[in-house]
Design goal:
heterodimer, A: about 260 residues, alpha+beta, 3-stranded antiparallel β-sheet, 7 helices, elongated, disordered C terminus, B: about 220 residues, 5-stranded antiparallel β-sheet
Chain lengths: ~260, ~220
């Protein structure tokens, strides 16, 4: 025993360090190879240019969205500057401010909840569908619908405002909202009454989501109450190509 | 001598180790999500992004023209009440606070369809460029969610009858073909539930009501 200890002590310290470094090296090489494995499935000559095109188009999109927000801000500024003493213009501006709120063009802040959805960390059992373990557009839409039903007044997902024309679609394993490609985690910011969190937490739909997605497949669902939820403005297009006003006098609608 | 060679080996190993750590960290940041997409998915994504960027570019051009018009009106010292009225009308029609009319598509549902399936059709129509939607007499705006069980669906606390109509204003050919294409949303719904009848027809004249919801936030305030 003492002989063994003596032999161990005789090992120079650099050999111990080298041993540890080689251990870490082996581990990292293994991790690297495993990470490469699924990618290798798709590796082909055309992939790198495709990825590059996507990234470039995403940058263009971000630039266009920023331009739209800036132009809308300047237009509003210009419209309001002209009000002055003109009572008609002042009244029109007041109505425009309301219409912008209704059209989800205004960034809002207030009490609400933030829900975060993330892909499952569980390993996919053999024979099971990998899709079930990822957050889908349907999951994002379901959760957005649950916060609406709980009483939310305004909702955005990863900075994309849920507006009147907002669709949630899948491309492969990714989620597209307002034509923008979003990456997990999906952060749903919802603004609403002070009891929005309790209403969401107690709702049957939310419980069903937890059961069917979180418990069954390990989709990570996080919910937090916040006094200062920020909901982004809609930064997309407003197209009225086929849409027409109903000729005045406006026919009465509803009861 | 042996110790010095050992140190050299150690240095080399640590160098490679550092390199690998950096590679690993960089691989984990960046667009990890894109890496998971197949070439086919990437091609679809490119098509989507191209379409969307085209729409955004059109919007930028429209806004630039609007801003120029406002500026030249103010330089001439004219009132811009006319421009403001037009803008107001546009926003109110789009947001759903005014009734609208136009060409589009009528989708008739019959049978025990799920709320999820109806929401799928609505999403599909929105992606295809629908400008306004209504389920029976309820205009679909943010927050209008179809809920309930098959046979007893409702939207905004309004129960839907067993047979109900979803109307969408937009390009009739576009909207129709997106819904009825092979492998499209209608085929998908009917493949899982043969009892559900979905009838899609282009419409030359649709009239949709205004929303009954108040779209002004009671709890949120504009961020300045």
């Amino acid at each position: 025993m003492t002989a063994l200890l003596a032999r161990l002590r005789a090992i120079p310290s650099w050999q111990v360090t080298l041993g540890l470094a080689l251990l870490a090296l082996g581990f990292l090489i293994a991790v690297q190879l495993r990470a490469e494995a699924p990618r290798a499935r798709y590796s082909s000559q055309e992939r790198p240019p495709l990825l590059e095109t996507v990234e470039q188009l995403q940058r263009t999109q971000e630039g266009l969205q920023a331009q739209i927000l800036e132009l809308r801000r300047r237009i509003q500024q210009r419209e309001e500057a002209a009000a002055g003493a003109d009572r008609l213009v002042a009244e029109l501006n007041r109505q425009l401010r309301e219409a912008r709120l209704a059209a989800a063009l205004v960034e809002l802040v207030g009490p609400g909840v933030v829900v975060e959805l993330e892909d499952s960390a569980h390993s996919v059992p053999p024979g099971a569908a990998r899709q079930d373990y990822l957050v889908s557009a349907n999951d994002v839409r379901d959760m957005v619908n649950e916060v609406w039903l709980a009483g939310a007044e305004a909702v955005s997902v990863n900075g994309e405002r849920v507006g009147v024309t907002t669709a949630f679609t899948d491309v492969g394993t990714s989620v597209i909202v307002n034509g923008r490609y979003l990456q997990p985690p999906y952060v749903i910011s919802a603004l609403g009454p002070a009891d929005l969190y309790d209403r969401l937490a107690e709702s049957a739909g939310f419980a069903r989501f937890l059961r069917q997605r979180a418990e069954a497949f390990g989709i990570v669902v996080g919910v937090a109450r916040s006094a200062e939820v920020v909901v982004a403005p809609y930064a997309g297009n407003i197209s009225l190509i086929e849409l027409r006003a109903v000729p005045t006098p406006t026919p009465s609608i509803g009861p | 001598m042996r110790a010095r060679r050992g140190q050299a080996v150690l240095a080399a190993v640590l160098f490679v180790l550092g390199l690998l750590i950096v590679v690993q960290l960089r691989a984990q940041s960046g667009s990890a999500g894109l890496q998971q997409l197949s070439s086919q998915d990437l091609t679809t994504l490119i098509a989507n992004l191209n379409t969307r960027n085209g729409q955004l570019r059109t919007e930028v051009n429209r806004l630039e023209t609007q801003l120029r018009d406002l500026e030249s009106a103010s330089r001439r010292g004219e009132s811009n009440a006319g421009d403001l009225r037009l803008e107001l009308r546009r926003l109110r029609l789009w947001a759903g606070v005014e009734p609208v009319r136009g060409r589009g598509v009528r989708v008739r549902f019959d049978g025990p369809i799920t709320a999820d399936a109806v929401n799928d059709v609505i999403d599909e129509l929105r992606s295809a460029g629908a400008e306004a939607l209504a389920l029976e007499e309820v205009r679909i705006v943010p927050g209008s969610v179809v809920g309930g069980n098959p046979g007893g669906l409702s939207v905004e606390d309004t129960p839907l009858p067993e047979r109900f109509v979803l109307a969408a204003i937009g390009d009739p050919t576009n909207l129709t073909s997106v819904l009825v294409r092979p492998g499209g949303v209608v085929a998908r719904i009917q493949a899982t539930d043969a009892e559900v009848g979905i009838d899609v027809e282009p419409a030359e004249a649709l009239a949709l009501p205004a929303t009954r919801r108040t779209l002004l936030p009671a709890n949120g305030r504009p961020r300045v």
